[in-house]
Amino acid sequence: MESSMKTQCEPWISLQRIYICLLCLSVQMVLGFNQVILLDPPVKALPGQRLVVFYTCNDPATVQLDLVVYFDTGSSRTLELTHWRCDPYGKTLKTVELNLPDWLVYQADGIVPDSQWALSCMLDAAVTYPGFDDTEEVVTAQDVAYLEPIPFFDRPVKQHELCIAWSMQMLKLTQHFLKKQCHFEQEAHLLSSIFASSEENFGISKILAPYKNKALEYLRVKTISSSRFMFSLWIWLTGHCQEKMCGLFYHIDSNDDYTTPTLLLTKSGRLHIQMSGESEESFAFLSPFKVPLSEWCQISVKVLRTKVTVSMVCIDEEQRKDYSADYISKNNILLDDTEGYFVIGGSKFIKGVEGYYGPMVYHRNRVLPRSTSEVVVPDVIRAVNLTGWLHTCRAFRLEMSVKIRGYSLQANQGEEFDTCFDAFHEMMVKNRLTSKPLFELWEETVPHRRQAVKLAKHLAFKHGKRGVNLAAVGRALYSLSLQKLGRGGRTGDISRILPLLLQAGCLSDNRALHMASVLYSSGLGVKKQPYKSWLLALLAAQKDDRLALLHLGHLHHQGLHGLPTDPALAYAYYENIAKQTALDRQDPTPEQTYVEAVHLNNEEELNLQTDKDHHIFQWLKLQAHRGAAEAEQAIGRMLFWGQQGVSPNMQEAVRHYERGAVQLEDSVSMYDYGIVLLQGQGVKKNIPKALTFLKKAMDKGFVPAMNALAWYYEQHEQNYEQAVKLWEQADRLNSPDAALNLGVLYSQGLYPGKAVDKFMAYKYYLKSAERGHIRGGILLAEIWTTGIPGRVKRRQADAVLWVKWAAEHNGYLGTILRKALDSYLKSDMFNSLLYYMMAAECGYAPAQFNVAYLCEQNTVDILDPGFASGCMWRYYNLTTQSLNPDPYALIKMGDLLYEGGADVHKDLFSAAEVYTLAALRQEPLGWYNLGLLVAEGYRLSLSVLIKLGLSELYLEDNISLQSSLYERCRELEGKDGYLPCSLALYSVYIQSFQKDYNTAIKVSTAVAVLTASTIFLIVPIVLRRAMPSLD
């Protein structure tokens, strides 16, 4: 009987076990026992790092750690770093040695290979199970961490473990690569690249913090009164100082005085060295040697208590010249390098040199025993090859000078002596520099120089006795290049036109240098060559070209093309063009156009573009004629600044200002008319008449007029009391100009009854900048770049953003944007792309968006498909990194990351991050695409859900999460996503119903089976118990 009962109970026990297993499996799915987390991952890609990984799994699985590297070409590469076995149910920590590839973390040295420029890196950890056919793996848990690649010249040099004999040979062959590097706190690399200086008041400011190492900090403080230090700086001069002195490297203390060390360059080319002694008295001396022109020279200064040693090594091709001088001070030399700040180049106190500053290293509290024979040219200087360009350019200019002289002689005599001239030219070319060309093939006489010679001859005969110079030939070559580009309209034409641009750049046309730099940087029609692009940008920036300055600021701000990220260097470039922008806006010229951010996918913005013959402009003129003051204002603004496609015409704009002020008595027109009369812009200056209209505008309550009258009282009558009264009144009405001017008065000590107050000036500059004043932003950035001791902390990163913002209002940038937009409206897509690319390489986000958009459209197949794809990747990616990215760009970048490509790794994690940014900007497609990712089985990370405000759904099923995402999408007002998101939500509801229905059927079936089994189990027992009673 017992055995019979046991056998009959087994089906019930088996069914109970099934239910328990199902319940446990559900709990495991909810709790997510498959998990992997990277604990405190590293931030930068450096050698010898460790990583702690936390992981769990349900069943025996594999934990795999991969490295994904993304390159600037749009391609990516996945490398398996390591993998290990995961045992079920055990929470485990594992420390992993990150063996990153040498080409990513070390400098290339012949053994460590060179690589493409890495945009970013990602550590990808995953818990994987074998698939059904053992060929694919199923990922059940994943975590990623991003690493920042180190720029090439900031990477360490690998110390190779080689046998003695071979290592000695390698050391001899590659000394500049394999020399031991000591990276201590005592070695400060103040400049790691090259800075182009145009002999203006712009430079690189650096602040040194106290040592983190307590022992080093103790020694630094102890040796302030008997200092020891050294520094070295590379310099290339293109000309002598125009003023008494120029700045090389100097220390400014908190009282705005020069202190130890100060290194300046005199007008005669000698070095001026100045130090501060124990008695707080400064002493200085001049070097006995001069700094030569057109050579790279390293200037070194060593200080050991009372002894100062100045040395210089100049290297020109294979020649090497050494100089040295010593000076003994009566007192010990004082230095507290944490007080104040250091400057390389120019500042508000002194102008920089005309030329280039190279790498600079400052050694704190130590003097290294180095001889001048050990000095080698830094890698970055060799890579740029400024010497090669200048030698080639010098030979080309010599030949063109001979040609021009000969043609001018023929033109003046009225006859052509071709035979004599050709023989003379042949002799000059034969006797000129015989060195091999070091830069490009454009120096060949056939066929590339034929166009330059033809233009020189044409100009010589056209101008006759007036003569022609090299710059005129350069301008003609640039114009010819644009004509050929306009006629061609294909990337294949660029390789033939590029030599003309390089020749024009050599002949002093900076526009040609910038365009050629952009072509090499973007790879449009030519092989991408970042260092050649950098060289051409340096050449143009040294001549103060505004777009080249903007380009270099962008490169060093973002750390592009392998250049090190250097906010201080980026600030120096941005500050230059920002201050020029403030001056340019006060004195507009026909070469400048108002900067307008027009996106090519925005029909409303495009429809606002007009010209004098367009129906919009004609309609405005009609409304103005009927007495509409707003129409009169709009026409005057368009004509004065050249807005919305209208060519600037200052005189015609003034007529509209006058009509609005006199006939319509409009306060805005009164103000505009008063300002042009006060400044004499487009009309003869008439101050009494200007004051009349400004007072009328102020009486009507127009706040800018109040500010303009205050400016007049301050500038012309020196009536500071009346000026301050008006400015304070305007400031209370949120006038940006009033806040700026009050700040200037405080900074200069001109505020009535008050002394100089930099902190009050700072507060007013901050208000002015936040209200949108360009000069207010520049002055605010000046304070943030050095700080105010005890009052305002240094904010270098924010200072860079302010001067970048100001620089991007430059009218020359606006002209390039206008040319790009006009070409687009005329369906000239190639030239539109070229001009937008010139602005995009300057870091202007709307232009970067438009370049990506044009590459995406590629309507007339002007671009190679491969280039178009890489172009989309690069410029949409750059657009998403701006402060205010366009939602369309976020969606497109997310799509690119989601789809991947032939050479691009599919990255769902990054796609989800970008879609999240779009969703947070109220873009319905962002919410919709996140819902699609979830529908495809992708699990959104907790960080994404927190940003979206949906963290409570982290452990919920996919249907609940999809419903929430699509509901958020539907809730967006005034958007186009209501219908598609409603349909998607309806689809989710149907799926949920089907799931619930199937679940109900399964439960009903299970209950029926359980009931039947129970009946079959109980009935025999009842019958058996009933049998004995019957007996």
UniProtKB/TrEMBL annotation:
The keyword Transmembrane applies. The keyword Membrane applies. The chain crosses the membrane at residues 1003-1023. Keywords: Membrane, Transmembrane, Transmembrane helix. It holds the Pfam family Sel1. Gene3D superfamilies: Tetratricopeptide repeat domain. SUPFAM superfamilies: HCP-like. It comes from the Eukaryota. This is Protein sel-1 homolog 3-like. It comes from Labrus bergylta (ballan wrasse).
